[in-house]
Records
---
Amino acid sequence: MKIESLHHVAIICSDYGQSKRFYTEILGFTIDNEVYRKERDSYKLDLSLNGQYLIELFSFPNPPQRPTRPEATGLRHISFGVKDIEQSVEFLTSKNIIVEPIRIDEYTGRKFTFFNDPDNLPIEIYEV
């Protein structure tokens, strides 16, 4: 098997409208496609960033909570590259998003930090 690329990350949210606004209005993703699946009582939202399809956002009735802390097995976080981390933190803070203090990657010397989406999914921004 030869993997060519990451195709997408699937995220299940508890409040579809809130998460849709977060990923589009705060993080700047573009909506490629939005489908309501009546038989599942579920939305599926395909999101792109800079023309690259990256996230499938799903809603399901009463999804179970994600065990996140301290460190649960499974997906740890998703990470996005940014050019200016201080400017990104300032923007997130202006939208009332709590951002952890900026850290320095001990191996690369690059700056990074974390914040959470509306369902407490950890998101990292990493200065590239």
---
Amino acid sequence: MQFELTEEQLMIQAAAHDFARDEIVPVAAGYDASGEFPAATIAQMGELGLMGVEVPAEYGGAGLDPIGYVLAMIEISAADAAHGTIMSVNNSLYAHGILKNGTEEQKQRFVTPVASGQAIGAYALTEPQSGSDSANMRTRAVRSEDGGHYVINGKKSWITSGPVADYVVLFAMTDPQAGARGVSAFVIDTSKDGFVRGKTEPKLGIRASATCEIELEDYHCPADCRLGEEGEGFKIAMGVLDAGRIGIAAQAVGIAQAAYDASLAYVRERKAFGQEIGSFQMLQAKIADMKSRLEAARLLTLRAAWAKEQGEKSGKRYTLEGSMAKLFASETAMWVAHQAVQIHGGMGYSKEMPVERYFRDAKITEIYEGTSEIQRMVIGRLETGLR
């Protein structure tokens, strides 16, 4: 096996690390407290190519590979998971789906401004009554008699970047009687009449990544804004989630890395009973377990990124690798962040220390883009061949 990174991969990792350290770390706590969308730093990330790492240069991106994307995501998320969330949605859920399924005109029109940081993309699958059961959606898209457009009505919930998104990849039923095979995908221009944003959700963590409910009220979507053919929406959505889960795994590794680094520094500096607390065997055991789980999660995530790269060349799905990485990395982030709070004691419970933010941010990685329970179901079904 080849574990060495290429020069390009090392360059994007270093660029993301330096930007995160210099621009995101100083403002992360403030954005977390206010819940304000970090528009200025996100625009800078776009200029660096971080909002379209895998997007070809002709569409405004950096044109790198999935491993480069994972490395950059880890660095950004270690500085602030909210910035990582916005980056992940733009890259994995929005741009990836259009690049894989869109026409040339759609790629030029909808990917280029988002990948370059001039616009924000979002992904709308979840509805108030259907989270994991995404085939049970109620949003309807009815084609006009002349075939020139669709009239879309419905609600979508928990839309990351929804309050600020310029474009949304949205899924709606075009044939309700066909179930999952009746779902179609569309790119929505949020500036048009009929697109309504709900209140911004008051979240536990990743607070600077604005999230809201959206509603479409007789929204007229041109037929040339449909992604793929009618009835291909569910297949498109699941393929996008395969990629998205790798992005969230990388985010989780970044959170775990930050929590581990903070803990390591603390046990080296904090003294009790006349010595550094890092010399106590119980704390050394915690550090050993944190480091081991962190590195296992990192390797699973990099392996999933490699599988994605190979899959895009061969047409083979990488669902198993993505689900395993997302499951293990997200639960590792939650566990490591928990240990970090415990190691810091009372200070770990204070907003004066970043570990309480890591703890809050880590939780969502076990929930969005498929809960841990869903990941176990996906892995179990693929391994047993049984449903």
